[in-house]
């Protein structure tokens, strides 16, 4: 398959190197276009008021991997690749493997998920991969699962345009309990701003979001648990996402309102 890979951790991150090299060695045609530095938690931001530069990168990846380092955001990288750098569209857009989880409401802030979502916006099925640890350097189980999932989708393509948000527990391969399709859960953070003073005496603030709670949600009528719940018991989670944020129940509820202008 022809694969486009990006991330938000930057060109030199171990996660993207593990993913790209593993898939290239499996025989896929791999192109990497990712930020030239870390761009975590940038969401789906685009660069509009300054030029975007892309430079070829040699000797970082497997010899069969074509790679560019881009000055823009993760979403910029995918958009630039699809419209300027690639000679034809890829079969899949992949993002990651991220250093750290992207569970529940994390996806709203994640540059990793946004890079994959840009692929979906352009009509290409996409997958975001995350390893649920900021300290672990063992990306092998996640890369192995990525290879397996890509091979499965080559034989059995998705029936609708989706982003698959994949989170892999940071344990040895033998300790992974299995794979579950899950609902998106909820994680709440307390955003603590630390007030500081720079060398010139001016005040600035440093954002340090800390996890406050992971909201427990009941298993739904279909027996599906959330990604937040499943990862605790060492399951790989696959959560299907889409960019349409319309609430069906909200649409129905608003029918009871009588809106007027002026």
Can you characterise this structure?
By secondary structure, the protein is of the alpha/beta class. It is built from 6 helices and 11 strands. It has helices spanning 14-25, 74-85, 111-121, 140-155, 227-232, 248-254, and strands at residues 2-6, 29-35, 54-56, 66-70, 92-99, 126-131, 163-168, 178-181, 187-197, 203-214, 235-241. The strands form 2 sheets. It has a 9-stranded mixed β-sheet, sandwiched between helices. The chain has a two-stranded antiparallel ribbon with strand order 9-10. Strand 5 (92-99), helix 3 and strand 6 (126-131) form a beta-alpha-beta unit. Helix 1 crosses helix 4 and helix 2 runs parallel beside helix 3 (111-121). 39% of the residues are buried.
Give a summary of the structure in a few sentences.
The protein is of the alpha/beta class and 262 residues long. 24% of the residues lie in helices and 28% in strands. β9 and β10 (203-214) form a beta hairpin.
SSE layout:
Blueprint: E1 2-6, H1 14-25, E2 29-35, E3 54-56, E4 66-70, H2 74-85, E5 92-99, H3 111-121, E6 126-131, H4 140-155, E7 163-168, E8 178-181, E9 187-197, E10 203-214, H5 227-232, E11 235-241, H6 248-254
Parallel strand pairs: 1-2, 1-5, 2-4, 5-6, 6-7, 8-11
Antiparallel strand pairs: 3-4, 7-11, 9-10
Helix pairs in contact: 1-4, 2-3
List its salient traits.
globular; 262 residues; Stationary-phase Survival Protein Sure Homolog, Chain: A; two-stranded antiparallel ribbon; 6 helices; nine-stranded mixed beta sheet
Q: What letter string, H or E per element, gives the SSE order?
A: EHEEEHEHEHEEEEHEH
The CATH topology label is: Stationary-phase Survival Protein Sure Homolog, Chain: A
**Widest sheet: strand ordering:** 3-4-2-1-5-6-7-11-8
How would a textbook summarize the main sheet? 9 strands, mixed
């Amino acid at each position: 398959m022809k694969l486009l890979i990006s991330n938000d951790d930057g060109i030199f991150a171990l996660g993207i190197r593990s993913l790209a090299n593993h898939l290239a060695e499996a025989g896929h045609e791999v192109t990497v276009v990712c930020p030239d530095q870390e761009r975590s938690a940038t969401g789906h931001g685009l660069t509009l008021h300054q030029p975007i530069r892309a430079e070829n990168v040699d000797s970082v990846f497997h010899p069969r991997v074509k790679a560019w380092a881009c000055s823009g955001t993760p979403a910029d990288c995918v958009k630039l690749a699809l419209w300027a750098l690639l000679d034809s569209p890829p079969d899949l857009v992949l993002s990651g493997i991220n250093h750290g989880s992207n569970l529940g409401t994390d996806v709203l802030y994640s540059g990793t998920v946004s890079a994959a979502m840009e692929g979906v916006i352009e009509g290409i099925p996409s997958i975001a991969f995350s390893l649920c640890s900021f300290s672990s350097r063992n990306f092998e189980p996640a890369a192995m699962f990525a290879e397996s999932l890509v091979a499965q989708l080559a034989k059995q393509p998705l029936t609708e345009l989706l982003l698959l948000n994949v989170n892999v527990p940071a344990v040895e391969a033998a300790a992974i309990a299995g794979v579950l399709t899950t609902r998106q859960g909820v994680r709440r953070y307390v955003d603590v701003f630390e007030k500081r003073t720079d060398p010139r005496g001016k005040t600035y603030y440093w954002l340090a979001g800390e996890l406050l709670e992971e909201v427990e949600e009941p298993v739904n009528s279909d027996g599906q648990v959330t990604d937040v719940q499943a990862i605790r018991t060492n399951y790989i989670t696959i959560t299907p996402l889409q960019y349409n944020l319309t609430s069906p129940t909200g649409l129905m509820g608003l029918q009871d309102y009588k809106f007027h202008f002026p």
